[in-house]
Design goal:
Layout: H1 3-29, E1 34-35, E2 46-50, E3 55-60, E4 63-66, H2 74-86, E5 88-89, E6 92-94, E7 111-117, E8 120-131, E9 135-140, E10 143-147, E11 177-182, E12 185-193, E13 196-199
Antiparallel strand pairs: 1-5, 2-3, 2-7, 3-4, 6-10, 7-8, 8-9, 9-10, 11-12, 12-13
């Protein structure tokens, strides 16, 4: 084989290796991804859900409330924020704005989520309909992604579902006195002493009790 042929084959091999390296590395360098990597859930103090079931939530210290001051279910808000922190996808479906209706991430059918710290928006995206394989379509800007581990029901629900349903914030173990008032019956109280409960004033007990 001629020397020039060997040189040509060597150049071809080098070009093939270079092309393979570029082919493998270029997609990762220019990858399109949906993720809020800079989001710190602990600093979020406002959550806005817009759509057919809108709600606005704000944090006061360690307590979450609705805009009208009613106590919100803190665990439900935490689940929402945790889900956004973990949200990540490189499964780009489309960037065609005309197809947003198809995936229900448009302004009419989408659920628009905004997480903020004060007046600074930290994350904004739109949740759409369910996707095959237990995933959900979500949009950021004009890009629609297929996202796993994210469910529309986590964000879209009646305002009443965001309310705290506990009647008492204090733990039962912290209670030391219980007063009972019944109709047509003298009131009485129970007190806890050394982890045992007893009547506070035994004189209120019926004779022979």
């Amino acid at each position: 084989m001629k020397r020039t042929t060997w040189i040509a084959l060597g150049v071809f091999a080098l070009l093939l290796v270079a092309a393979t390296v570029v082919w493998r590395s270029a997609p990762e360098r220019g990858i399109t991804r949906m993720a809020f990597v800079k989001l710190d859930g602990a600093t979020v103090d406002r959550v806005q859900v817009a759509g057919k079931q809108p709600v606005a939530l704000r944090r006061e210290g360690d307590v979450w409330k609705l805009e009208d001051g009613r106590l919100a279910d803190g665990e439900a808000v935490k689940r929402l924020i945790d889900a956004v922190e973990k949200l990540t996808s490189s499964d780009l479906v489309t960037q065609d704005t005309e197809r947003q209706v198809e995936f229900e991430v448009d302004a009419d059918k989408g659920v628009i989520i905004t997480l903020s710290q004060g007046t600074r928006s930290m994350a904004t995206f739109v949740v759409g309909k369910a996707a095959p394989g237990g995933a959900t379509y979500a949009r950021t800007g004009d890009q629609v992604f297929r996202v796993t581990g994210l469910h529309r029901s986590l964000f879209a629900k009646d305002e009443s579902a965001w309310l705290e349903r506990k009647l008492f914030a204090d733990a039962v173990g912290d209670v030391a006195r219980l007063e009972v008032r019944l109709h047509d019956v003298p009131p009485y109280a129970l007190v806890k002493k050394d982890d045992a409960w007893g009547i506070e004033d035994p004189s209120v007990l019926p004779s022979g009790f």
